[in-house]
Amino acid sequence: MIEPFANDHQSMQIGELVIENQKDKIIIYGDIDLTLDSSGYQQAEQLHELTTKIMQAFETNEPYNNNDIKSKKKDDQTGKEIDNPFL
Predict the structure, then answer these.
(1) pLDDT digits (tens, 9 = 90+) for 46-65
(2) Taking the CB of the first residue and of the last residue of the chain, which one, N or C, has fewer CB atoms within 10 A?
């Protein structure tokens, strides 16, 4: 299980759902089929544990809405102004 927002190198997988950990965000992609059997139950438990840990991270980090800590190196916006080619 990952420790949400703790580092930039952890990842985990539940079914075909991939969860990547970063210091400023959690990236989740893929899909998962929660079947009504023991396998589906185990996957649902993992999802529940993960989302609980993510919510706890938000609750313990009060400035979670502070945009100053966002990662700029992976942001599409560089902060530079460019000339509008349509003017």
Answers:
(1) 999 999 999 999 888 866 55
(2) C
Yes or no: say if 3 and 23 are a contact pair by the CB < 8 Å rule: no
pTM of the model: 0.66
- Write the CB contacts of 13 (distance below 8 Å, at least 6 apart in sequence): 19, 30
Question: Residue 10 is which amino acid?
Answer: Q
From edge to edge, which strands make up the β-sheet containing 16-21?
11-14, 16-21, 26-31
DSSP secondary structure, 3-70, as one string: -TTS-SS-EEEETEEEEEE-SS-EEEEEE----SSHHHHHHHHHHHHHHHHHHHHHHH-GGGG-GGGS
Q: How far apart are CA 31 and CA 20, in angstroms?
A: 14
